[in-house]
Design goal:
By secondary structure, the chain is an alpha+beta fold. It folds into 2 domains: about 180 residues, Ribosomal Protein S5, domain 2; about 120 residues, GHMP kinase, C-terminal domain (Alpha-Beta Plaits, 2-Layer Sandwich). Helix content is about 40%, strand content about 25%. The strands form 2 sheets. Strands 1, 2, 3, 4, 5 and 6 form a 6-stranded mixed sheet that branches. It has a 4-stranded antiparallel sheet with strand order 8-9-7-10. Strand 8 and strand 9 form a beta hairpin. The mean pLDDT is about 90.
Length: about 325
């Protein structure tokens, strides 16, 4: 895009005050990269905040070093080693135009842990996209594709499912090649999210699944098909208020994760403990090999059983 009068637009500093939500996926992970739909939900109880002010000034080369950064919140410091590099990647995504220096200060406050499957990378990518939109560097209609391109930095390859959930802040049936549909469910049995104590990194898990598909393409296709069946079952469960179909959907998706080799000892232990407490079904949410698992409960469950968890629905 042309940066017409971009400096004239920002003779005064741009005030930044935004919040970006997290996400969690019920089913469809990994297979969504190959066009299988996924059922994804925003996690509005956990957010990433960016506050401060920015000023664009002409310069010999686009740079961020003159912008002061402060990190806060439970997980803000986790972003500190990455933020400059991420911001520079974001600047690289801006089409060619006038060079500028970014001055000002930003405070980044995060309630979202990295490597946990709750959409930290998507939340940050969307937040930066909104800042750049306000600066006149990204068009509003480009936000989704721009933020997805930035998320490639984290995932190696992003399907856009996390970015879509963060942008729309609504339950979505998302397809990489078929678009998205906002879902309006009236039936919400208790679903909770539980940290297993170890982190899982999407880039590594994506590579692991890709390697399996290259070595055993037929098995890979069968696993994708099974994940697609899980999504269909889950949709039927919500639409028909059918707890057993939801349970079957989650159990099927878990088996796919196990076949991919993405359920480690910590995840298996946490899921077994949840099922011993009465969870109807459990599975990883996100990439696997660490992070969070989700648990489906009967509506009559004693909520004290899940009091230390994130309640997803």
């Amino acid at each position: 895009m042309e940066h017409t009068n971009v400096f004239q637009r920002h003779l005064m500093p741009l005030s930044v005050d935004l919040a970006s939500v997290g996400k969690w996926i019920l089913t469809g992970e990994h297979a969504v990269l190959r066009g299988v739909p996924a059922l994804v939900f925003p996690l509005t109880s956990r957010r990433l905040f960016i506050k401060g002010e920015l000023h664009l000034l002409p310069g010999e080369d686009t740079a961020l070093e003159q912008c002061q950064l402060e990190f806060g919140g439970e997980f803000g410091r986790d972003l500190q080693p990455l933020f400059y590099e991420i911001f520079k990647k974001a600047l690289d995504l801006i089409p060619k135009g006038p060079k500028f220096v970014v001055k000002g200060h930003l405070k980044i406050i995060s309630e979202l842990p990295l490597g946990a499957g709750l959409g930290t990378s998507a939340s940050l990518s969307v937040a930066l996209g909104r800042i750049f939109w306000n600066l006149g560097l990204v068009k509003e209609e480009e936000l989704f594709s721009w933020a997805t391109s930035l998320e490639h930095f984290f995932h190696g390859e992003s399907s856009g499912v996390d970015v879509a959930a963060v942008l729309h802040q609504a339950p979505l049936l998302y397809s990489r090649y078929g678009g998205l549909k906002v879902c309006r469910f009236s039936y919400f049995p208790p679903i909770s999210l539980h940290y297993v104590g170890t982190k899982g990194y999407t880039r590594d898990c994506v590579a692991k699944v890709k390697e399996l598909y290259e070595q055993f393409p037929k098995k890979g296709q069968q696993l994708d098909q099974a994940m697609g069946e899980s999504v269909s079952l889950a949709l039927q469960g919500f639409e028909e208020a059918n707890l057993e179909k939801l349970r079957s959907a989650i159990q099927l998706a878990r088996r796919v994760f196990e076949e991919w080799g993405l359920v480690d000892a910590a995840m298996a232990k946490t899921m077994a403990e949840l099922e011993a407490k009465g969870a109807l079904a459990t599975k990883p949410t996100g990439s696997g090999l660490g992070g969070y698992v989700l648990a489906l409960w009967d509506p009559s469950i004693d909520r004290s059983q899940i009091e230390n968890a994130i309640v997803a629905l």
